[in-house]
Predict the structure.
Amino acid sequence: LWSQVLERLQLELSRPTFETWIKTASAERLEDNCLVIRTPNPFARNWLQKHYIRTIANVVQDIAGHPLEIYITVKGGDEDSELEEQQAAWELEVPTPVTEFIPKNSPKATQKTNDLNPKYVFSRFVVGVNSRMAHAASLAVAESPGREFNPLFLCGGVGLGKTHLMQAIGNYRLDINPNSKIFYVSTEKFINDFITAISKGMQNFREHYRTADVLLVDDIQFIEGKEGFQEEFFHTFNTLHEAGKQVVIASDRPPKQIPQLQERLCSRFSMGLIADIQTPDLETRMAILQKKAEYENIRLPRDVIEYIASNYTSNIRELEGALIRALAYISIWGLSMTVENITPVLEPPIEKIAATPEAIMTIVADAFKVSHEEMKSASRRKEISWARQIGMYLMRQYTDLSLPRIGEEFGGKDHTTVIYSCDKITQLRETDKEVAKTLQQLCDRIQINTRKRN
Ligand code: ADP
Ligand code: MG
């Protein structure tokens, strides 16, 4: 029956539609009046459901001679995981569940809460040079908690995988021993629990947090200036540490750079290992997209991967979001996955004001005291190539020029050179205060200049 249905659908639907979505589906089951169509991924399922269920039903009815109920599902996995997958695919950011702090005497207390996202496991983490150290340290901690690196302090910019790694430690421990007490808590939640405990009594709070086998505290930078909580956390930390329990802390910056952090806490945070995660290079970003696509059962052409990866450089959450938007878009419109087709949904991550390449060139040349000719030359003199890299980065930020076109603006440089420059500056912007300041000044000048012109 299914092959007959396919034949007919091939005639009724456009070729890309058929090739992309129908051909990859299969009919798995025919019972009584039910036909189950399995699609390789949630996008295909959604799209078929939304746009073509009627067409398919009509064709099926024609061929079978009577109407059938049609169910479209996703290959592999039960309905639950399928739903979850779909949710993950359609929401730009899956909220991370956090530990409920449940007072002992509440009825929920015996109920086991799973506070970890099951997707945040080591096998789903792509290791690049940017995260090698943090990954290795996390793995070491997962294998022998409370030993070498205690605490493990993970730091790095937003969306670079800190939460993923820290929860991977928890998931790994739970795999080994489902009864171990793994507490994952955001600092905000931790502070709220503390505030509640102040009025209701500290005992439950302490019993809860001080009996962890592994305590994972996320986004500790929010501890800034919270004196009372810092005091309490200091004791929690010591209790756990002395008992040989593992503490893992994540932060968007190193302990020394958290303002108003008590000196003694700062030194506690630094006594294990501080491992940082940098922004990933192009190759790593491509590998991350590749892996993500594999999990979604989607084949992505290499140029599409490269295109998305070169447009989102500094935040993996945004990178994943872009992929998800692209997938949703082509699935809704029944397009094939090509660079051209997905361009409209890959909005530049930073608001682009229409600055001209000339204006940017002039502003950068002035700022670094180099000439336009030098910017366009092949000179590798340090100041010149620095100005050139900054120029490329700013042009990427503030114009709609493609990477090859930016290369042309700089005297015909290859687009890989442009990608390299953008990556480098993006990274420095986050790690080097001086560079960040310089860039801020240049951005201001570009914006002022552009506003005057418009
Ligand atoms: P952070 O806590 O540093 O802000 P997250 O851990 O929440 O970042 O990561 C953001 C998203 O990017 C998550 O969906 C995570 O799974 C994904 N991610 C981050 N780093 C990697 C990586 N190296 N490999 C695969 N996915 C990653
Ligand atoms: Mg996080």
